[in-house]
Amino acid sequence: MIHKIVTSLIFLCLTVGLSAQEKRLSKEEAVRLALEHNFGIKMAKNLTKIADNNQGILNSGYLPSLTGTAGANYNDLNSTTEYPGQFDTSGGAREDLEIDHAESQTYNAGLNLNYTLFDGLGRLYNYKRLKEQYQLTELQARETVENTLLQLFSIYFEVARLTENENVLKQALEISLDRITRAEYAFEYGQNTKLDILNAQVDVTNDSINLLNTKQQLANTKRDLNVVLNQSLSEDFQVDTIVRFIPRLQLDELIAQARENNVSILQAERNLNINEYDIKVNRSGYLPQIGLTGSYGWNLNQSAPNSFLPGQVIPGSNRSSLTFGLGASLTWNLFDGGRTTTLLKNSKISYENQELLQEQVALEVDRDILNALASYENRLNIYEIQEQNVLTNRNNFERSKEQFQLGRITSIEFRQAQINLLNAQTNKNLAKYDTKLAELQLLQLTGQLLNVEL
User: Fold this and answer.
1) Which pLDDT does position 135 carry in this prediction?
2) Helix, strand, or coil here: 233?
3) pTM of the model
């Protein structure tokens, strides 16, 4: 009965995941999908578009403003004019003058043009500031891309590690299964006891559970990767488990150029430029502003009949006119209560703070690079040691296997050699991908994460 349960568990472990056809997802393809579909990268690109719109000529203040106006009025007049004590030429009394529904209309339309010819150079410096703001937004978008790619590779390499661990556990399960078969044959021929079979079955059960847990972790991590790539959560794939490290000479060259390429240092420089333009914009408040104005208008007045003299009705009339005007204005704010002075002083203080922040960022980046380099070298050494450890444990396992088949060592000693090999292989996998992630973090600090072949 135990043998049937174990066999069913083994079959389940070996067949889970094989029903679906898995595609291969290379590192290059993963990067391409992330750049195209990742939510964070998409939002960063949209922010860059907004900054690009803001730095355009339409938002510069250099273009004139043109406004159009139009209007119409309608009047309906009913009037009665009385002439008390008034007589006509024949001596008779004059009749009252009544005007009913006397309609009048007025129409007007015009264009007004305003242009700031000079504003103390504030417009110029603000335009340059918007240019710097756009470049800063581009750097912020680049930082988002770099952080997203680090997140991507962290999950991608975890998928690769679990994939390799899965293969290692499958091999361990096959070895344990072979032990059961050998133990059963030996028991049938009286060469060992039932205890050897039970020990083998316990080891198979443990290996099967470890394999099932690894498969579950692998499935969960693949879903995490699908979220970063913004694709269906049910998408299944195989990843590339081959890792290549950058030669140390090339790495040293990248580190030497880190201050020119690190995204944090570049952002600090852009912020310093923006603060410098803020000073110039605020200083422009001391200078006068010169503006030009122009207008063009049309008016039409259709008047109603009216009476000014007794007994006389003056008929309505139409009058139209066209007007054209030009003008210039000079505005100089001689004293604004100290507002401009306060803004200028504060902008200078902000500039000084930004200078201090720039120095701090540069120092922190230098520290982070040294720490990342030391971490990378340490992990690389550990990986090389783990590689050698795998070779040693594999040789030990092969010899133990021969001795076990000859009956010179017990199943417990053989199992220990198997566990040692299993641990060495999984530790090597962990060290390999930890080392690659440390290298990628170092590349990000040098500003070359997006420029090197991974």
Assistant:
1) 97
2) coil
3) 0.86
